[in-house]
Amino acid sequence: MDASLHFDCLVRLADDHMILGHRLSEWCGHAPMLEEDLALPNIALDLLGQARILYDHAGKIEGKGRNEDQLAYLRLERDYRNLLLCERPIGDFGHTVLRQFYFASFMGLYWSECQNSNDQILREVAAKAIKECAYHIRHTGEWVIRLGDGTDESHQRMQNAVADLAPYVGEMFHMDETSQQGASAGLIPDVSKLAATWHAQVAPVLAEATLETIEVKPILGGRSGQHGEEMGFLLTDLQFMQRTFPNMTW
Amino acid sequence: MVTVVSSIAWDVAAEVTDPEIPMLSIADLGILRGVKTLDDGKTEVSITPTYSGCPAVMAIEMSVSATLAKAGFDPIIKRVLSPAWTTDWITPRGREKLLAAGIAPPVKASNSIHALFGETQVNCPQCGSHETERVSEFGSTACKALYRCQSCAEPFDYFKCI
User: Fold this and answer.
1) Is the CB of residue A87 less than 8 Å from the CB of residue A228?
2) Residue of A46, A166, A201, B72 with fewest CB within 10 Å of its CB?
3) ipTM of this complex
4) In A, which residues are within 8 Å of B49 by CB distance?
5) Taking CB atoms and an 8 Å cut-off, how many pairs form between chains A and B?
6) Which of B137, B142, B146 sits opposite A139 (nearest CB)?
């Protein structure tokens, strides 16, 4: 397989996990209750752990001597290829749990399919991540139901979150040239084939949460490096240490 | 090939404890997967992480390296991801040590994601009551959840099934 295609596919996946992990970590010390102050960074840690292995692997495939830190911290905004869903600001707690529920539900399916990848490391990461994902789906799904079917206030906030995140759902299942080639090469799953199952898994949870599903035209861009304006602020925070003290290590 | 040398090295490595659960050795925890002597005389130690993002892994690897070096070995650490660690690999001795330290050991037969969704009965490590409730799905470390006993009112950690 073409090394540059292989690298691109791995970096997309790694970027999803690191950027979302970073967003989740913004809750540390600010969550609405102590239990969630433990839960959200714990989930973030799982995502970062997955991202690290993927970056490390991608760096070796690329063969230009870039390590996980250089890939995570020393690229320009346009070089990040994460889903726009992952970079959206944390919003209120409802936005955060809904986004996580969407993403974990997606990754649960994605990792399952990755069990058939011809990339051994991807298969290994998947085997571990499937179990972690199941935990994330359950935890955030319970919150979606509790808040959606909760008070008038919590219901309205969850409904707002459904509306706000609706344009970012479609990008998860969008196939562009890189994803087509990656899927044809047997490296990554064809995400367009995951959409129906994803909707079938998410819909009952939203229904139980008394939330109305909203379908809108998807906004795309993350996979080609076109990000929302919030991404620059996120990277400023994320890259601060490496930009200030180049090559620093813990 | 199992040699006397690698068997000694295993015993040395097996004594290293988990910094976040210091009552457990890495052998008790089931994360020490193998020790072998390589052709060049180095000792290769295979370790698997409990969770992808477990922050203790690096500390454990350094600790294993230092312990083996001190015992006269020339160690290299290999991090293995597959097969993925499961709580079923915690040894019976490890489960006893957890219980003695007030941490409820994981419910058995976790080797399927369905176990995550099943109703599990977690017994109180203090009084043994099965009248317990989950306080928080996530706890002080990636591998634990918080519970409370409704009989003796003690809060306790539960080692999550994965």
Assistant:
1) yes
2) B72
3) 0.76
4) 49, 128
5) 78
6) B137
Q: In CATH, what is the architecture of A3-244?
A: Up-down Bundle (1.20)
Question: Which of B49, B139, B162 comes nearest A131 by C-beta?
Answer: B162
Return per-residue pLDDT of chain B as tens, 162 residues: 456 777 899 999 999 999 988 999 999 999 999 999 999 999 999 999 988 888 888 899 999 999 999 999 999 999 998 888 999 999 999 999 999 999 999 986 554 444 455 557 899 999 999 899 988 888 878 788 999 999 999 999 999 887
pTM of the model: 0.89
**Contact criterion met (CB below 8 Å) for B28 and B103:** no
Chain-chain contact of B52 with A139 (C-beta, under 8 angstroms): no
Q: Are B25 and B17 in contact (CB under 8 A)?
A: yes
Residue B80: phi and psi, rounded to 5, are: -110, 140
The Cα–Cα gap between B143 and A131 comes to: 12
The domain total for chain B is: 2
Full residue range of the structural domain in which residue B75 is found: 4-79
The last residue of one of the domains, among B61, B79, B97, is B79
A129 contacts on B by Cβ (under 8 Å) = 52
**Same domain, residue pair B10 and B74:** yes
